[in-house]
Design a protein that fits this description.
This protein is an all-alpha fold. The protein has two domains: 107 residues, no CATH class; 108 residues, no CATH class. Helices cover 76% and strands 0% of the residues. The chain contains twelve helices and no strands. Helix 4 runs antiparallel to helix 5 and helix 5 packs antiparallel against helix 6.
């Protein structure tokens, strides 16, 4: 039994790992929304649930609940698909490690550095994969797009650079702005930036789409 999601070329991938896109979005964004809400309403939460006050101030309450929500999302993904998506799994492991350090040492620098570590890791893995002739982005997007080899190479390269850009942006924000501003940007800034970048890649995707090429060939017959 495969624990991790299957290789994009595995014919059983689509059959066994399908999940409702809306539910997948909830599983990926849910922990972030929990993090934002808990940071914004930390004092209220500790009044309602005094045990949470043992964690520390609002950012530490948010960190603890973020860790719990992340673990729940991964468990739900496993129960639904019997596999664990690679990128959320890596991100979740880093959340749990850096979150634990944040709570144990009562220093929020660790949870603030988590996006930097994760995005740098993803960027280096994607770009490093290209160095060895592997377009690893197919593990993430192959269920949504069917591209030729050149398309996957170009898209992987661009996403690799984008992840490094996100890592740099996170460093700038957490080092120069307040914790509340960083949390707000993490939840409400990164997602719009990512969506804009994703949409900006649609011309490349359309040019290298195997489905589009098949339609053109059928139309020419």
């Amino acid at each position: 039994m495969n624990i991790l999601e299957r290789d994009p070329s595995d014919p059983q991938k689509q059959k066994k790992e399908g999940v409702n896109p809306l539910l997948k979005l909830v599983l990926e964004l849910g922990p972030l929304l929990v993090f934002f809400f808990a940071n914004a309403r930390g004092e209220w939460l500790t009044q309602k649930f005094p045990a949470l006050g043992e964690l520390g101030g609002p950012i530490f309450v948010a960190t603890g609940l973020f860790m719990a929500a992340t673990a729940i999302a991964l468990i739900a993904s496993w129960l639904l698909t019997r596999t664990l998506p690679i990128m959320p799994l890596v991100s979740g492991v880093v959340v749990l490690i850096f979150g634990a350090l944040t709570l144990y040492l009562q220093d929020d620098i660790f949870i603030k550095m988590k996006p930097t570590i994760v995005n740098t890791l993803f960027g280096c893995v994607l770009l490093g994969g290209l160095f060895f002739g592997k377009s690893l982005l197919g593990y993430v997007f192959d269920s949504a797009f069917s591209l030729d080899a050149e398309g996957w190479r170009k898209l992987t390269f661009r996403w690799g650079l984008f992840f490094l850009f996100l890592a740099l942006v996170n460093e700038v924000v957490w080092r120069n702005f307040s914790t509340d501003a960083w949390v707000t940007f993490k939840v409400w800034g990164i997602m719009p930036i990512t969506l804009l970048f994703t949409f900006s890649q649609m011309p490349l995707i359309m040019r290298h789409s195997l489905e589009e090429k098949a339609k053109e060939e059928n139309a020419g017959k």
